[in-house]
Design brief:
The protein is an alpha/beta fold. It has 7 helices and 5 strands. The protein has a 5-stranded parallel beta sheet, covered by helices on one side. Strand 1, helix 1 and strand 2 form a beta-alpha-beta unit. Helix 1 packs across helix 7. The chain is globular. The chain starts with 9 loop residues before the first strand and ends with a helix.
Length: 185
C-alpha cells in the first residue's frame, strides 16, 4: 500500500496472540508506527507456535514491520518506562483480563495523566463489565457461547470448530474501526 493515512500515528500494543496484534497490523499497514510491548522472558504466546520456537508463524504474520521492546510494566521502574512511552503515543491497545491494567497502574486514568488525548482501547473477550467479564476469552470460547459452533455441524454429528479464527479476526477488525473513529472524531 502506497498511501499511508496513519503516518505520524504512534500505537503502543500490549496485546498478545491474535485479535490485538491483528488489529495493530491492520493499522500499521495504513502507516501507523506500532511499538509492540512484551513482558521480558515470556513475551507474546504466539511466539510459541510453529515453525520455530520464538518466531512462530502466527507471531511473524501479525507483527511484521512493528518495533518491539520488552518492558516489565508490573514493577515501578517498568511502569515508569511504559508511562514515558505512553506520553509519546496516540493510541494504546491492551488485551488483558479486565482489571489487570488497573492493578499494574497502567490503566486509562494513569495514561491520561501523562497523555490527556490518548485513545485507549481495551480489547477483552466479553467486555469490561458484566457476568462473563472474567471468563477465558479465546476464539473458540466466543463461537461456542454465541452458538456459532453449533451451526457448524452435520445432522447427528458433534459440532466442529471453524477452520479459521473468525471471532478473533472480527474482534480485531471491529476494534480497529473503533480506534480509527476515535482518531478522527
Amino acid at each position: 500500500m502506497t498511501a499511508q493515512p496513519l503516518k505520524g500515528i504512534r500505537i503502543l500494543d500490549l496485546s498478545r496472540l491474535l485479535p490485538g496484534p491483528y488489529l495493530t497490523q491492520l493499522l500499521a499497514d495504513l502507516g501507523a508506527e506500532v511499538i509492540k510491548i512484551e513482558t521480558p522472558r515470556l513475551g507474546d504466546y504466539a511466539r510459541l507456535a510453529p515453525p520455530e520456537m520464538g518466531l512462530g508463524g502466527l507471531f511473524e504474520a501479525v507483527n511484521r514491520g512493528k518495533k518491539s521492546v520488552a518492558v516489565n510494566y508490573r514493577n515501578p521502574r517498568g511502569r515508569e518506562i511504559f508511562l514515558k512511552l505512553a506520553a509519546t503515543a496516540d493510541v494504546i491497545l491492551e488485551g488483558f483480563k479486565p482489571g489487570s491494567v488497573n492493578k499494574w497502574k497502567i490503566d486509562y486514568d494513569a495514561v491520561r495523566a501523562v497523555k490527556p488525548d490518548i485513545v485507549y482501547c481495551s480489547l477483552s473477550g466479553y467486555g469490561q463489565e458484566g457476568p462473563y467479564r472474567d471468563r477465558a476469552g479465546h476464539d473458540l470460547n466466543y463461537l461456542a457461547v454465541s452458538g456459532a459452533v453449533a451451526l457448524n455441524a452435520r445432522a447427528g454429528e458433534a459440532p466442529l470448530p471453524y477452520g479459521l479464527p473468525a471471532a478473533d479476526l472480527a474482534g480485531g477488525m471491529l476494534a480497529a474501526i473503533a480506534i480509527l473513529g476515535a482518531l478522527v472524531g
